[in-house]
Amino acid sequence: MPISKSQHDAVLFDLDGVLTPTAEIRALCWKRLFDNFLKQRSQVTDSPFEPFDIQQDYRLYVDGKPRYAGVESFLASRDIHLPYGNEGENGSGDESSGEQKSGDKSSASTEITIRELGDRKDKYFDEILDTEGIEAYEGAVSLVQHLRDLGIKTAVVSSSRNCKKVLRAANIIDLFDSIMDGEIAERLRIAGKPEPDTFLKAAEQLGAEAQRSVVVEDAIAGVQAGRKGNFGLVVGVIHDGDASALKENGADIVVNDLRELLPSETSEPNI
């Protein structure tokens, strides 16, 4: 087992695609958001509609990043630059906001902002979570429980502002000693992934040094953050697909299921 009490004091888990299959839901929400936006823009500018690619665009520009940074990153890839927007102009930054109110002429007459688009995506996500719920990956739960039995501390480090809501819905929030989510990072003005700051802050909260902590991520931005922070081990997770992108960007090992990191597992991780 590459994670041991003798070498590691803490393991820091991403949420989407690592603990829960919410990455798939978020990707669909991002596609809905950007396709609607791009269709409307193509009609206004009389230009071809090029849809959001849920495989390439999501992983390259959105996955693992804070939501507003994800919006800005993707739009920049299409040479689209929108005003960022001010907190409070759209329902005081509430995650359920983001739709222009009917009859609000001032809102309709102004250009949409990055904040509005990001909040709209979160509204789509909340609708799905409320109606369909979510279950954690069994292999991830087994690994977290095993680590806690060893006395290794665990934390969730997520760019999502609704991280705690997802953890509660999956009934796993009590498995973690600390939670560093997008809401806390924004309040403390901590840079998001691919910068290592949120992981470093989470390790600090657990009283662990980076070199004795493990980062577990499925996103390119996440493994980049783990490498930049000089963490003792960076584990990449791929449930389907090619491990090479995560390896090239900082993962020491890549697994298809976190169950592979348990000592009883005979299959070897993709080193």
Description of the molecule:
Helix 2 (about 55-60) packs across helix 3 and helix 3 packs across helix 5. The two termini are about 15 Å apart. The chain has about 270 residues and is an alpha/beta fold. A six-stranded parallel sheet has the order 3-2-1-4-5-6. The chain has helices spanning about 20-45, 55-60, 65-75, 105-110, 115-130, 140-150, 165-170, 180-185, 195-205, 220-230, 245-250, and strands spanning about 10-15, 155, 180, 215, 235, 255. It contains eleven helices and six strands.
Helix content: 40-55%
Ends distance: 13 Å
Q: What is the mean pLDDT?
A: 88
Q: How are helices and strands ordered from N to C?
A: EHHHHHHEHEHHEHEHE
Strands of the largest sheet, in order across it? 3-2-1-4-5-6
Features:
single chain, 271 residues, alpha/beta, elongated
Brief summary of the model shown:
The protein has 271 residues and is of the alpha/beta class.
Write the layout of secondary structure elements.
Blueprint: E1 10-13, H1 22-45, H2 56-62, H3 67-77, H4 105-109, H5 114-132, H6 138-150, E2 153-157, H7 163-169, E3 178-180, H8 182-187, H9 197-205, E4 213-217, H10 220-228, E5 233-237, H11 244-248, E6 253-255
Parallel strand pairs: 1-2, 1-4, 2-3, 4-5, 5-6
Helix pairs in contact: 1-5, 2-3, 3-5
